[in-house]
Amino acid sequence: MSVLLETSLGDIVIDLYIKRAPETCLNFLKLCKVKYYNFSAFHRVQRDFTAQTGDPTCTGQGGECIRSLIDPKTPKYMPVENHPKLKHTHRGTVSMAAASPDQAGDGGKPVMGSQFFITLADDLNYLDGKGSIFGRVAEGLEILDLLNDVQVDGAYRPFVDVRIKHTIILDDPFPDPEGLVVPDASPLPTPAQLATVRIGEDESLEDPVDPEEAEKQRRSKEAGAHALTLEMIGDLPFAEVKPPENVLFVCKLNPITRDEDLELIFSRFGTILSCEVIRDQKTKESLGYAFVEFDKQEEAEEAYFKMDNVLIDDRRIHVDFSQSVSKLHANWASKGANAQGFAGLQGYERNRSYREVEREREDARNNTSEQVARCD
């Protein structure tokens, strides 16, 4: 005797213990038959413990037995049915949940309505006697794995709704109680049930991200990971190092333009800390680009806006902000990690000279190749 639960996570088949828990099985089967469980949420999911559902109000406070549903004058709950040989030993055990103490029947005996739970772990024997075992999950144990992994809030309510869509009775040995009305089709969710929806099953728990934005985020994370690796092996002073904002990159220079000429032209915008035309290491001939470092960022910005495309020595130059950190790194590497400040930060921030060593020139050529390509 079995029932198929179609849930938003997948199908679960429950085999029923009709001989050992006949009253409980009848209650469950007839509630399934009238589609009472349709759209019910798994309102309480505790990892490696239980997943509870069967409340049409989706609050954990509702639900009634089939006889009360047929005749509202009868008690809302029925006595819990316990068989001594039925235990919560295996994952996938299905039990009717006992109502709260204030809802207990005459004499304080536990009662049950429509809510039931499925165990998500083995050896939960301390639940014995606290609910009425009436079945076990025969198919769909992988769905229990998914259910066990859902994200929940502080009250163990899943953030993304997990709901029973349909109940299909595969075999029912019990005659219908008098007055039972079976609907011709599955009823639509009521406005009250729809109001309980948190995040729909077809929605994502995470905010939707535009594919282009997602790719940018991916590249940014990847670049951060590479930078962190370089920091760990000592090739960068720290992963967040950025190009200086007071250094300009000047390209398309005439080979005859000298350092002094360029420094004189740019000095009208502010104090020049260093100005160097980059030259071939062997021939000493100009490579057609240079670095100009100002004392202040504002001075570099003014020069950037006013000097781009200006004619110098019969060549229209191109000015941009430097994208190279090689000069900063060279100073840091030469001073070592024991320099003043974090990773020598203070030292190389105070003394960024582009005329120190030949190695720096080679670094500049390597790190600015992309900018040179854009200029060409």
Automatic annotation (TrEMBL):
Keywords: Isomerase, Nucleus, RNA-binding, Rotamase
Reaction(s) catalysed by this chain's protein: [protein]-peptidylproline (omega=180) = [protein]-peptidylproline (omega=0)
Biased composition (Polar residues): 366-376
EC number: 5.2.1.8
InterPro entries in the record: CRIP, Cyclophilin-like_dom_sf, Cyclophilin-type_PPIase_dom, Cyclophilin_PPIL4, Nucleotide-bd_a/b_plait_sf, RBD_domain_sf, RRM_dom
Any one GO molecular-function label of the UniProt entry: peptidyl-prolyl cis-trans isomerase activity
Bias kind Basic and acidic residues: ranges: 354-365
Bias type Acidic residues, positions: 202-213
SMART domains recorded: RRM
PPIase cyclophilin-type domain sequence ranges: 6-169
CDD domains: cyclophilin_RRM, RRM_PPIL4
Region annotated Disordered, chain positions: 200-221, 354-376
Segments forming domain RRM: 246-324
Pfam family, one: RRM_1
GO CC, one annotated term: nucleus
Chief subcellular location: nucleus
UniProt subcellular location: Nucleus
Alphabetized Gene3D superfamilies for the sequence: 3.30.70.330, Cyclophilin-like
Membrane-spanning segments: none
Domain of life: Eukaryota
Role according to the record: PPIases accelerate the folding of proteins. It catalyzes the cis-trans isomerization of proline imidic peptide bonds in oligopeptides.
Stated family: Belongs to the cyclophilin-type PPIase family. PPIL4 subfamily.
Protein name (Swiss-Prot/TrEMBL): Peptidyl-prolyl cis-trans isomerase
